[in-house]
Structures are given as structure tokens and as C-alpha cells.
Amino acid sequence: MEINGYETKAHAVPTKRYCQMLDLKKDPKLIEEYVRRHSEKEAWPEIRAGIRSVGILEMEIYLLGNRLFMIVETPPDFDWEEAFARLATLPRQQEWEDYMSIFQEVQPHATSAEKWKQMQRIFRLYE
């Protein structure tokens, strides 16, 4: 894998960032399928629309082995708990979560907010 970095999108408003992790099952075929299901071609449009509708500006998921790392960018006034409670009620969201559970080391029927674990920032290159 060549290391070139990833471009980020500049937003018209200040943002804050949430970082989370989740483990996939240690099965290369399941991991390959999980990656494919998250591709631009195969991710369900209702899920993308729902993520945007609750106020999320950008969401990225990275993979190393079977560990996922997710970055979520939001406006500063974003309320995580309120947004993810709303997200859980949107069309096809629970169906997507149940389907993704096949690949993930999580409890069946867990919501996105229950699956992904918030990470604590421990270092920042301050100005």
C-alpha cells in the first residue's frame, strides 16, 4: 500500500470531529464484503441521506486488519446523542445496522451509537 495521505474537504463552517472504533470479525472474506458494501457503488443511498440529514458533514471509515476507525465531522453545535437517536429511526437504518452486524463484533440488533466506541484524543500538535 502506497502512503499518499487523504485530501479533506473544507467546510463553510467551523467543525468538530468525533473519532470512533469498531472491530470486524476476523474473517478475510467477511472483511472484503464489508469493504465492498461500503463502496460508493454499493452503499445504500438511504443510509448516506440519513447520515447527512442528522447534520453530519463528513464521515470517513478506515480499515487496518479487522479494526475500523471512523472520523465524523460536524458543525460545532452538533448534539451526538440527539442526532444518533434520530438516525436510528430513519428508513432502512435498523435494517442496515442488522445487516452490518453480520460482519462486526457486536451484539445483534445494536444501533450505530451502541456499536461504535468513542475514542479519546490524547495528543494534538498545538500551534
Describe the model.
- With 127 residues, the protein is an alpha+beta fold.
- It is built from 5 helices and 4 strands, in the order E-H-H-E-E-H-H-H-E.
- It has a 4-stranded antiparallel sheet with strand order 2-3-1-4.
Please outline the helices and strands.
Layout: E1 16-23, H1 28-37, H2 45-53, E2 58-64, E3 67-74, H3 80-87, H4 93-100, H5 112-115, E4 117-118
Antiparallel strand pairs: 1-3, 1-4, 2-3
Order of strands across the main sheet: 2-3-1-4
Judged by helices, strands and strand pairing, the structural class is alpha+beta
Give the uncertain stretches in residue-range form: none
Straight-line N-to-C gap: 31 Å
SSE ordering? EHHEEHHHE
Amount of helix: 25-40%
- Tally the beta strands: 4
What shape does the CA trace take? globular
Rg from Cα: 15 Å
Q: What's the story with the biggest beta sheet?
A: 4 strands, antiparallel
Strand content: 15-25%
Number of helical elements: 5
Mean pLDDT, rounded to whole units?
A: 94
